[in-house]
């Protein structure tokens, strides 16, 4: 049985290099199908060499890798850097609000 990575690699290899113009000509709704907005952020995959099968495979891989759980652990300040045995502080580096960033119950923001 193939792993999710192998399955995704098979789907990608079966997909010919996408001619973006041809993809839009074949599917006038491509932009709406392969893009989404999150507040002011536009995520546009319509101009990438993807199709529904590839995105489904990527989503399945992310779920299997528990990306959502790991993201939540990062925002909670859990120890997820297993090499250094500490929390990662990516969120603190990008924090432009007055919200505290807690690591081990302590606010690490100045």
Automatic annotation (TrEMBL):
GO CC term, one of those recorded: cytosol
Alphabetized PROSITE patterns for the sequence: P_GLUCOSE_ISOMERASE_3
UniProt keywords, alphabetically: Gluconeogenesis, Glycolysis, Isomerase
Domain of life: Bacteria
Keyword Isomerase: yes
GO biological process, one term: gluconeogenesis
InterPro entries noted in UniProt: G6P_Isomerase, SIS_dom_sf
GO molecular function, one term: glucose-6-phosphate isomerase activity
Coiled coil location: none
PANTHER family, alphabetized: GLUCOSE-6-PHOSPHATE ISOMERASE
Name of the protein in question: Glucose-6-phosphate isomerase
Organism this protein belongs to: Rhizobium fredii
């Amino acid at each position: 049985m193939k792993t999710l990575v192998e399955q995704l690699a098979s789907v990608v290899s079966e997909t010919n290099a996408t001619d973006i113009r041809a993809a839009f000509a074949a599917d006038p709704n491509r932009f709406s199908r392969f893009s989404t907005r999150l507040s002011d952020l536009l995520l546009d995959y319509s101009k990438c060499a993807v199709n529904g099968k590839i995105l489904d495979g990527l989503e399945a891989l992310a779920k299997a890798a528990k990306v959502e759980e790991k993201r939540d652990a990062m925002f909670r300040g859990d120890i997820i850097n297993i090499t250094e045995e500490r929390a990662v502080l990516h969120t603190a580096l990008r924090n432009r609000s007055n919200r505290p960033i807690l690591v081990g119950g302590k606010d690490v923001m100045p």
